[in-house]
Write a structure and sequence with these properties.
224 residues; two-stranded parallel ribbon; 9 helices; globular
């Protein structure tokens, strides 16, 4: 019984402590259709990219090709995210040794020594994100939404912060096209996420997707 109580308590750390309604976008058939079509296109591109990217990762750093981590999506629902590995294989264990240059419930370091040489290129070009099209196809994520947080972040969320998870997390979103890694204040990111929810429409999603592609192709993504 004591063990069961501990498990329930731990699980509740990652759920809103108050009732919340999902954002209207989560019920949009058109948004879901856009996600499926976009995910299928992205996965086709992933098949083309896989071999050269996998070889580059393996030659640069020992370890797996893919990186997987538990993240939290719509209203705190846990899911496993997938990326091409851009850091050393024991990066999570080393996180506590790296200085956090961001303010609030997010982690950023412009010169993070855990990032490999190939990893920096993958991040700069956003190629590391392509495996997440699988998450989009499954419905864990959307093409456009908010950045999916980690357990140590959501366990400290306030009511205002939980509002950002009223939508499904996205491959891109308001903050990604507004500076991405250059934005180091978590409250600014929350402001952008809430702005997205207020502005949302399928057309607005398309605008953000086009802006994301333009930003990545012009190397102005701000990712590191």
């Amino acid at each position: 019984m004591h063990r069961l109580f501990e498990e329930k308590t731990e699980a509740n750390l990652y759920r809103p402590p108050f009732p919340r309604l999902p954002h209207v976008s989560t019920r949009s058939a058109l948004k879901r259709l856009m996600d499926i079509v976009g995910a299928l296109i992205g996965l086709v591109i992933l098949m083309v990219l896989y071999l050269p990217v996998a070889i580059a990762i393996r030659l640069d750093s020992p370890g797996p090709i893919f990186y997987s981590q538990e993240r939290f999506g719509l209203q705190g629902k846990p899911f496993r995210i997938w990326k091409f590995r851009s850091m050393v294989s024991n990066a999570d264990a080393l996180k506590s040794t790296i200085a956090n240059e961001a303010q609030g419930l997010i982690f950023k370091n412009a010169e993070d020594p855990r990032v490999t040489k190939v990893g920096r290129f993958l991040r700069k070009t956003s190629l590391d994100e392509f495996p997440q099209f699988w998450n989009v196809l499954k419905g864990d994520m959307s093409l456009v939404g908010t950045r999916p947080p980690t357990a140590d972040e959501v366990s400290h969320y306030s009511e205002r912060h939980w509002q950002r998870l009223d939508v499904r997390p996205g491959l891109t979103g308001q903050w990604q096209v507004s500076g991405r890694s250059a934005i180091k204040n978590f409250e600014e990111i929350v402001d952008m996420d809430l702005h997205y929810q207020h502005q949302w429409s399928p057309v607005y999603d398309l605008k953000l997707i086009v802006k994301t592609v333009t930003t990545v192709l012009s190397r102005r993504s701000g990712a590191y």
